[in-house]
Amino acid sequence: MYAYAKEELAHLRERLAWTHQRIDPQFQTPNQVLGAKRVIGCVALEVTQRCNLDCSICYLSENSESTPDIPLETIFARIDALVESYGVGTNVQITGGDPTLRDHDELEQIVAYVVSKKLVPALFTNGIHASRELLRRLKAVGLNDVAFHVDLTEKRKGYSSEKQLHEVRQEYIERARGLGLYVIFNQTIFARNVDEVPDLIEFYKRNADVVSMASFQLQADTGRGLTRKRKQGITLDTVTDTINETMGTDLCWDNVQFGHPKCHRLGYAAIFGKGQKVVPLLPDLDEFVDMIHTFDDVVVDRARPKRAALQMVTEATKRGYLPRGLKYWGGRLAREWKPLLKARGEVRKLTVVVQNFQDAQQIDHERIDNCSFHVMTDDGGISMCVHNAYRDHYLEGGVGYPAEYQARRVADGFPALTPGMDDGCGSACAK
Ligand code: SF4
Q1: Is 398 part of a structural domain of the chain?
Q2: Which domain range does residue 370 map to?
Q3: How far apart are the CA of 262 and the centre of ligand 1, in A?
Q4: 47 near 99, Cβ under 8 Å?
Q5: Strands 264-272 and 211-218, how do they pair?
């Protein structure tokens, strides 16, 4: 948990206001998190373009493997710009390619530098080189989250179903167990595994003692992967419906608005025991709205749930929320006393995200303007969907973002892109 200086909080508030003004008025609903509590959902920091897998659905470019790693100084300069743009407490995805292919001393320095700027680092990896030793080492310099990507698109030898891949997931869980990291699992949902979403949910329910977030990323037609168009019927609605059915309850996906509603949905579940009972954590919209506005600048230490709970109680006391908080949360707890007893008091929070990245050739600018997931470049933050669509040009020196996007981002207060970058047609229109 970071203690923020007065100036850092003032800067954060100014950045929140900046985000608020870029959010389209139609999406400035009371439950909109962007601009109220968060400047951005997260920012990707790509520390290498290389990867040790070649997934059938991959956002990287055909030229990624031959792209040299950017020097540490450039990464540090991007981190400096990142905190300037989005403020302290921003979630930073240290990603690639696979970041573990980078020299591990350098990786450690990157994590430490992110932490020194009071940002929250997450390691995004396929896990192949993310040994317990490496995770322990990175944790020691302040790594907060580890996000493992495991699914059938990766074509791991000997695995032909998601059910079989639970063996890999279980191994990763054991690697991370007890290290004090917030553990996330990502998977791309496509024709070959969409029927296994229930089984994946059951797995995360059983393992909610270690796994804190499961993210389901719907296939997008972008990057170098050979599998292109998403099968009809794989949508935010169908996947969230399947998750609700498996959870045995509605996770109230519409209660949290994070940027544009077509981009993703978030559900928060309280898992009792090994998943015998699931209760939605945020069933009341008014309560959620009250909370995001009361705790707008509080960043909890999500890797340590007990400490986070204590931090919330302290902040609730300071902000006068405690009496109504006790009434609401105490009441809800009392209603669940039977399953609570049955689970011997074991209740874990599992966040479920369904992410809907865009196809490279059908970029919707309304979604880009309200985007909650950026990637850091030498020209500041850029929407991940735009970056993926024009990645080839970016790797070749930054050319290719279309004029329309450049004009819109400048209007939103982002830095202008490097002069000469606009050739009016990126890789997306070349396809
Ligand atoms: S525009 Fe793309 S990257 Fe941004 S929030 Fe939407 S899906 Fe995510």
Answers
A1: yes
A2: 361-430
A3: 9
A4: yes
A5: unpaired
